[in-house]
Amino acid sequence: METVDPDLPGALRGVGIDEQLGSFLPSEARFLDSEGREVTIGDYLDNDRPLLVNFIYHNCPMLCSITLEAMGMTLSDMDWTPGEEFEVLSVSFGAGETPEMAARAKERMLSKLDREGAADGWHFLVGDSTNIALLTQSVGYSFKWVASTQEYAHPAALIFTGDDGKVTRYLHGLDLPADDVRKALVEASEGTVGSAMDQILMYCFQYDPNSNSYVIHATNLMKLGGMLTLVVIGIGLFVFWRRETDGGSIGIPRPASG
């Protein structure tokens, strides 16, 4: 789904997200993490947890800080923790930004999240232009340097993949409900994370690109309601049958003969 508005001013032309559902993250793309270690995207795959990816740059004067703060609030509203049910990659698209920048951002966000174990699951990466392009192009994420303002124009979105790196969902914008993020993670994991109730909810809800949210799937909801009705009727008939059977087994004494 192309999110670029053709009526945007020239500085914003070519900025947006062309959704690449079903594509795969480039496992060979190389970055540095917040501790300065060289890593690949593949290092965060094949661990039985879905992946949430967002793009930032650390010298951003406004939107990136807001994006991180908003995502931190969303994660705080969830009872799941990065590193346990899912992984988070916050990747800088500013070529030449340093691990020290990533470390400061990670420290700030982890202190706000205040969740034990989250440091092992929320990863902040920086890289060079070649590897940044390899990753951003694989998910259709387009940004642009604006010389007049000396900053990047870029979209805000969360991108979800399975543990194999296959892109399953995009949620656009800043203020994203924790329930939608949770549903997107369950969807990305193909049901391997989450409770039985999460599986039921995913059956009853579907993603609506027009509202950028998960909405009730009327047909599936009616099917589920029909199945529950049959179960209730079945239980009622079973209880009625047991009562009739138990009542019929009780001997009724005959009157004494004269």
Explain what this protein looks like in three dimensions.
The protein has helices at residues 63-77, 99-113, 129-138, 178-188, 196-204, 218-248; strands at 16-17, 30-32, 38-40, 51-56, 87-92, 122-125, 141-142, 144-146, 151-153, 157-161, 167-172, 205-208, 213-216. It has one domain (10-194): Glutaredoxin (3-Layer(aba) Sandwich). It is elongated. It has 258 residues and is an alpha+beta fold. It is built from 6 helices and 13 strands.
Furnish the topology, listing elements before pairings.
Layout: E1 16-17, E2 30-32, E3 38-40, E4 51-56, H1 63-77, E5 87-92, H2 99-113, E6 122-125, H3 129-138, E7 141-142, E8 144-146, E9 151-153, E10 157-161, E11 167-172, H4 178-188, H5 196-204, E12 205-208, E13 213-216, H6 218-248
Parallel strand pairs: 4-5, 5-6
Antiparallel strand pairs: 1-7, 2-3, 4-10, 8-9, 10-11, 12-13
> Structural class, judged by helices and strands?
alpha+beta
Main sheet record? 5 strands, mixed
Helical residue percent?
25-40%
What Rg, in angstroms, do the CA atoms define?
26 Å
Compute the number of strand runs.
13
CATH superfamily: Glutaredoxin
Instruction: Quote the average pLDDT.
Output: 83
CATH topology: Glutaredoxin
> How many structural domains?
1
Number of helices: 6
Question: What proportion strand?
Answer: 15-25%
**For the largest beta sheet, what order do the strands appear in spatially?**
6-5-4-10-11
* Anisotropy-based shape: elongated
At the first level of CATH, the class is Alpha Beta
Q: In terms of per-residue confidence, which ranges show pLDDT below 50 for 5 or more consecutive residues?
A: 1-5
Order of helical and strand elements: EEEEHEHEHEEEEEHHEEH
State the end-to-end distance: 93 Å
Q: Indicate the multimeric state.
A: single chain
- If classified by CATH, what would the architecture be? 3-Layer(aba) Sandwich
